[in-house]
UniProtKB/TrEMBL annotation:
GO terms for biological process: guanine metabolic process. Keywords: Hydrolase, Metal-binding, Zinc. This is Amidohydrolase-related domain-containing protein. Residues 66-428 form the Amidohydrolase-related domain.
Length: 476
């Protein structure tokens, strides 16, 4: 079995809060399956044996360059990419009527426009280092099949959700009944799976997911039907839960219950479920979510615009909730998971500042019921874990995905920090105190990786692989 060999420095977060810089390592990727078949120091006996038996020399990464697992984006509204970066001045429920539903309806009515928007979206995702993505689509089957086809062609690992919604505040943008919605969801699943059925298993990168938009747009009959469909076909479920004050109030008025109660009642909170936002969940709610195995897509930027309240990230992690990051385009204006990581840290630090001021302003105070006594901030290394392995775990990818482990898909991005000849930083990066080894080679340090995390951008991304397939490579 032929393999691609790559020698160089690898950066990963094996556990949340820990970061490894693995210099002079050798990785082997099966050309047949795209899986990692070897990963060890270059000086190990197994690496030496592999190099000696290989018909081709390894690809050697230049100094100042490293491989990092791809990013996972757990929450994007693909049709809303049409108006990314506009229309963020309204409350959530008004914004849906004024922008989101109209954009989705436009794409459902214009296949050519949908193809242009989705093709550009795929290009941007690759540029941003996002190799795995969980997508909300529209209500029309054909438009979602265009989305799935384009993501597969781009080589991205994409979970594509046809919206299910038999209730809508926009009369022209809804499905006629719960029965019609369930029939359409089932039909889309079959057609989406057929798109890749002739490909080898490791090249079937696109999969359908069930997508009740959120409680206000779904009848009880529809929610129960989707749960049954999920069980019968072991499908991933995605939705929004407890996102904003107006949404939470609407659900209470309509259903006389909380979001989490409605979803659980209808069997939609499972280990295969990813719920976006969850900002209004209490600590007991989070504990229960952890018990159920349901994951959260944390979208800190869009939360700042629409949620009225930040997500209790530290508390969720303490309770063992599976958490990954999402951009929530277009509720979030930036498609880059780098921004989601930075905002996640910034929001958590502000939450910790508020907690500390409350505790120490006039002497110790009794914390509110359910409040955490823990430090609420997260650091950049924890955010990097959420963007990589956290997202992979939430999606149920093979154990070890989002890391460099033997038997997992080779999903990686190549990051170049500086020019090895001039030793000048690339893009926004500047380095003045480079560390060198005994032979004068540049050593990658934790501080260099941190600087990239804070101010790096697309100019530093020079290669990307999904399931061993090289999607692009910039010449330097």
């Amino acid at each position: 079995m032929s393999s691609t060999l790559i020698q160089g420095t690898f950066v990963c977060t094996p556990t949340i809060g820990s970061l490894q810089i693995l210099s002079d390592h050798l990785i082997a990727v099966s050309s047949t399956t795209g899986l990692i078949t070897h990963f060890a120091p270059i000086t190990s006996s197994s690496s030496i044996e592999l190099l000696q038996s290989s018909p081709s020399p390894p690809i050697v990464l230049p100094p100042g360059t490293f491989l990092l697992p791809n990013f996972c984006d757990l929450h994007i509204h693909a049709p809303q990419f049409l108006y990314q970066g506009t229309g963020l001045h309204l409350p959530l429920m008004q914004w849906l009527d004024e922008y989101a539903y109209k954009a989705e309806e436009r794409l459902d009515a214009d296949a050519g426009l949908a193809r242009r928007v989705y093709t550009r979206l795929a290009t941007r995702l690759v540029e941003k280092g996002t190799g795995t993505v969980l997508l909300f689509g529209t209500i029309k089957e054909e438009t979602n099949l265009i989305l799935a086809e384009i993501m597969q062609k781009a080589g991205l690992r994409a979970f594509v959700g046809k919206l299910s919604m038999d209730i809508s505040s926009r009369p022209t943008y809804t499905e006629p009944s719960a029965a019609a919605s369930l029939y359409s969801a089932s039909s889309f699943i079959t057609q989406c799976q057929h798109l890749t059925s002739s490909l080898p298993l490791h090249r079937r990168l696109v999969a359908p997911v069930l997508t009740p938009r959120f409680v206000p747009t779904c009848s009880d009959e529809l929610l129960s039907g989707l749960a049954a469909l999920s069980v019968s076909q072991s499908l991933v479920i995605q939705s929004h839960m407890s996102e904003s004050r107006d949404e939470v109030t609407w659900v209470r008025d309509l259903r006389g219950a909380e979001d989490i109660e409605v979803f659980e009642k209808h069997g939609l909170l499972t280990p295969r479920t990813i719920q976006a936002h969850c900002t209004f969940l209490s600590i007991p709610n989070l504990t229960h979510l952890s018990t159920l195995g349901t994951a959260v897509a944390h979208c800190p930027l869009s939360n700042a615009y629409f949620s009225d309240k930040p997500f209790p990230l530290r508390e969720a992690l303490i309770q063992g909730v599976k958490v990954g990051l999402g951009t929530d385009v277009a509720g979030g204006y930036d498609l880059d998971i780098m921004s989601s990581m930075r905002y996640a840290v910034a929001v958590s630090r502000m939450r910790e500042g508020t907690r500390a001021l409350t505790v120490h302003a006039d002497g110790p105070r009794v914390p509110a019921v359910g409040a955490s006594a823990e430090n609420l901030s997260i650091n950049w290394q924890e955010a990097l874990y959420l963007a990589t392995q956290g997202g992979a775990h939430a999606l149920g990818l093979p154990p070890g995905s989002g890391n460099f482990e033997i038997g997992t898909p080779f999903d990686a991005q190549q990051i170049q920090l500086l020019d090895p000849e001039t030793r000048q930083g690339i893009g926004a990066l500047d380095f003045f105190d480079l560390e060198t080894g005994a032979e004068g080679n540049i050593l990658l340090t934790l501080e260099m990786v941190e600087k990239w995390w804070c101010v790096g951008d697309d100019r530093n991304r020079v290669g990307m692989w999904v399931q061993g397939n090289n999607l692009f490579e910039k010449a330097r």
